[in-house]
Structures are given as structure tokens and as C-alpha cells.
Amino acid sequence: MDWIRITVKTTTEGADVISEILSTVSAGGVIVEDVRDVLSYDRPKEQWDYIDEEIIAAFDEQVCVRGFVEDDEEAGGKVDFVKEQIEFSKENNPEFPWGSLEFIVENIKDENWGETWKKYYKPFKPANKIVIKPSWEEYEKQEGDIVLELDPGAAFGTGGHETTKMCIGFLEDYVEGGKTVMDVGCGTGILAMCASLLGAKKVHAIDIDEDAVRVAKANMATGGFDITVSCANLLENNFDKVDIIVANIIADAVMLLAPKALEHLNENGIYITSGIINERADEVEESITKCGFTKLQRRSLGEWTAFVWRK
Known about the structure:
By secondary structure, this protein is an alpha/beta fold. Helices cover 34% and strands 27% of the residues. The protein is globular. It starts with a strand and ends with a strand.
């Protein structure tokens, strides 16, 4: 079977939105090619430097989000749907840094695409301990590594985004054996799985999106994780208190959730917040401080900021 490849050129900030739109029609998820992700691994040999300069040179200056649809009678409608959704998003948020949004449609001959797309995904280390490894890749475990096998079957939550990297790093800092953790807005469940691997006694992942819950449950089952996943809203539902709440969502949401997070945390509990664009970080800090939390850490990576708070 032949395929149609859809490529949209955008920015690092716009990649999440474009990925979400494209994933609704793309077979097997989407591919995000961002040279900034490659450069983040351009380190000394003992720190994961396996990047060839020719690879960096081959990347587009903009972020390329790619998806594939079957070249059949429904293909034209799927392409038009993606284009319309992107135009709608831009019209409703014209100030957002979208980039060029250049839209490219190409016919791709079948070359066992179901396997060749996998070359885009390699094991990587988002923080200091966790290693995220696709199931088809070999990885020689190093001392101190904690390997999470996770296949990129969905647009979000495979660990490469700056907001997720910072959350994983903070989880590595604060999750200890016996801790209880809640992942709010869990998406694919990657943060919940990381918390479990880091030694959490009990982990509960929640999301208001039913599709996200379905994907997270499938990931837990595949990985053999004993993690509760439910479609729920922290603002509307009551849960047992936990030691750590992690919320990798958006600035407005982490501020809105802060009072409820305070209620659901044990004494001296930790609230990890990410998904906050740098321009709004000061606003978030002021809001959550007024709510009654004490700031422990503030970290920025690229265009994004994350915080750690103590109750």
C-alpha cells in the first residue's frame, strides 16, 4: 500500500498543537523533527554524545511535524481536514508563535513503512536516571539507569518535550520508596510510569480526556505496571491524599488546580508543575505562592518553565 506524507513546518511551541491535529488522521502516530532536540544531546562522549554533525545539518530550521495517511479514496478528505483545523487554530490564536505553517503533501511508495518509520525513534535519557527505550531498539544499560520501554504510538508523552523532561528530572529528585504519587493530566501516562519505576508505593494517573485514559491504560498493561488510571478531574472529584502531585499541563490549569492540589497533598507534600511558557512563569509563581505553597525549585528549558512547590 502507498502512503501520503503530510508535513507541517512550525515552531517548537506549535509542534504540540500540530501534532494533536495530525494524530487524528495519521497512522501510527506522528513524527516531530526538531533540531533543538538533537542539539540537547550534543554533549561530551560520557554524556550521551552520539550525534553526527551531518545529522544536525540535515534538519530543517523549523520544526517539521509529519504524519502518514493511506493513499485511498479517503485520503483527500483527511488532508483537507488537517489543513482546515490548522487554519482554524491559527485564526483563533493569531498571536501564538506558529512559524510558517508551510503545508507539504507528498506521495510515498510503500517500502515497508510500518517498519521504516521506527528509525526515527532511539533510546534517550530525558534526565539523569530514566532511559526511554522503544521496544525494537537495543540498549546497553549503564550503572544507575532505569529503563522505561515505551513505544511512540501517540502524539504526546514519549518524553522528548522540554516540559516532560523537566518533570521527569523533578520526579527523580523527589520520588523515594514508599511515596504516593498522582499524575494529573496524565496523557500517555509516562510520568506515572516513571514515578513507579523510581520507587513510588502507589501511583494514580488521571485525565479528563477519555482517549488519553485509554492510551495510558494500554501503556500500563503493556509495561506491566500496577497503576490506577481513571478519567477524572481533580477539580470535581475527591481522592486519597498523596505525597506528590505532578501536573504537566498549561499555565492556567496549574494555577487553577493549585488549591485542590493543596487539599490532596499530605503535609510537606510536593506539587510539580510544568507546561508553563516562560512568559507566564512569574504570573504562575505569584499565583501559586499566594495559594499557600512554598517554592522549592524553578527551572527553565527552552521556551518552558517548571516549578517544584512544597505544601
